[in-house]
Design goal:
Blueprint (H helix, E strand, L loop, with lengths): L20 H8 L5 E3 L2 E5 L10 H10 L19 E2 L33 H10 L1 E5 L2 E6 L14 H11 L7 E4 L6 E7 L2 H16 L5 E8 L6 E13 L2 E7 L4 H5 L4 E13 L2 E8 L6 H8 L14 E4 L2 E4 L14 H7 L3 H4 L6 E8 L2 E4 L4 H10 L8
Parallel strand pairs: 7-15
Antiparallel strand pairs: 1-2, 2-3, 4-5, 5-7, 6-7, 8-12, 8-15, 9-10, 9-11, 11-12, 13-14, 15-16
Helix pairs in contact: 3-4
Length: about 400
């Protein structure tokens, strides 16, 4: 859904889509517009990253690797999101623009007024439907919303019963395929267990035939040495302090594979465009493992833009990238050079709130492909970097 060209704010000022990267991005990131007092706004909220566990691993392997997209969770950092009209100078909290307003230029810091309620999040989900046919429902979600959250944490699965009622569906909704928390893109839901089983079998058979039912796009910091190729490695979970991380196992042993301590993974990639040391990549995973694509991109020495979890594994000496061992590279805010920060219009402080540029753009179903437009922050980055823009199929 494109941004409205000039929606009116209740305070009387007109919305302006060209209002600067992280004013506009914050307002439009969910790529849907929720209504407050009959006026168009865009909202999102923030939440804490959950430590991965077996429960998440099983669900995400069944659902497929990828991303997740609703501004209702950890989207830009540690604070909570508020609501913002699309105007250049004043930003208000959710609810007809009442609340604090400031005269400074619109910036990311104004976006974190308060967390969205479950009701506000439901309105966003309802507006994010991109396909509805029979028992199938597809949403286009922003980065940040987990499919399963921690106890008491807002998540998609928690909201599915309410979403079903709002959409007038009689049967329960459940997840067929979904990306991980950090990513944006397609979430496929079903209200029929038989349809779910058929689709999961379809995806499995397609991968066995060498087909790629899921296609992602990623903006990377760095350009792969080869224009296309594949990334093959074992992956496993490893505890690092209080955090569970995915680490590569270049040559997994047969015992570890048999015990399912390590999973053999494979991703095909193709460079769609490159400019200024960054690239737009097409990624087609043949296997499904949580955070597979983010880790695979580090093995290409081209971490995803906005990856504050694994990008520290790629170091640089005199501009030449090299791979660091996971034990020596704890998670931290991604490091970008001053030139790239300037092209993106970011300060170092804003950088830590930059979302991951990894988007599940296409799912091929038996009846044909589904597509999801990348979120506005992704499209704006393509424009800033001079990379190929998104084109409707």
């Amino acid at each position: 859904m494109a941004a409205a060209a000039g929606c009116n704010c209740p305070c009387g000022r007109s919305a302006r889509p060209e209002a600067g990267l992280y004013g506009l991005v914050g307002a439009l990131l969910a790529q849907v517009q929720c209504r407050h007092g009959g006026q168009l706004h865009s909202c999102a909220r923030d939440g804490a990253r959950d430590p991965r566990g077996a429960r998440h691993q099983v669900i995400e392997e069944q659902a497929g690797s990828g991303g997740a997209w609703l501004g209702a969770e950890r989207l830009w950092g540690e604070q909570a999101w508020g609501c913002m009209c699309l105007r250049t100078e004043e930003v208000g909290e959710c609810g007809a623009c009442e609340g604090k307003r400031g005269g400074a230029q619109m910036s990311a810091q104004w976006l974190w007024g308060r967390p969205l309620s479950s009701e506000e999040t439901l309105r966003l989900l309802e507006a994010s439907v991109v396909h509805r046919e029979g028992a199938l429902l597809a949403l286009n979600k922003p980065p940040g919303l987990p499919i399963l959250g921690l106890s008491g944490e807002l998540s998609l699965s928690m909201l599915l019963p309410s979403l079903r009622r709002r959409l007038g569906l009689t049967a329960e909704l459940h997840v067929v395929k979904a990306p991980t928390r950090e990513c944006s893109g397609l979430v496929l839901l079903s209200s029929c267990h038989r349809v779910t089983e058929q689709l999961q079998q379809f995806f499995s058979n397609a991968r066995q035939r060498g087909q790629h039912p899921a296609t992602y796009h990623a903006v990377t910091v760095g350009v792969p040495a080869e224009a296309e190729g594949k990334i093959r490695t074992g992956l496993r979970w490893q505890q690092q302090g209080d955090t569970a991380m995915v680490v590569p196992v270049p040559v997994p042993g047969p015992r570890s594979l048999a015990r399912k301590e390590v999973k053999s993974t494979l991703t095909y990639y193709r460079v769609l465009g490159a400019a200024g040391g960054c690239a737009l990549l097409q990624l087609q995973p043949k296997t499904a493992f949580p955070e597979q694509l983010l880790v695979h991109l580090t093995l290409l020495l081209c971490p995803a833009l906005g990856d504050h979890q694994y990008s520290s594994r790629v170091g640089r000496v005199l501009g030449v990238p090299f791979l660091l061992p996971p034990e020596a590279s704890p998670a931290r805010t991604q490091v970008l050079d001053e030139e790239l920060l300037g092209r993106l219009g970011l300060s170092p402080h804003q950088l830590r709130h930059l979302p991951v540029h990894l988007h599940l753009q296409q799912l091929v179903l038996p009846q044909g492909p589904l597509h999801a437009t990348p979120p506005p922050h992704f499209l704006h980055t393509l424009h800033c970097l001079g990379l190929p823009g998104y084109k409707e199929p």
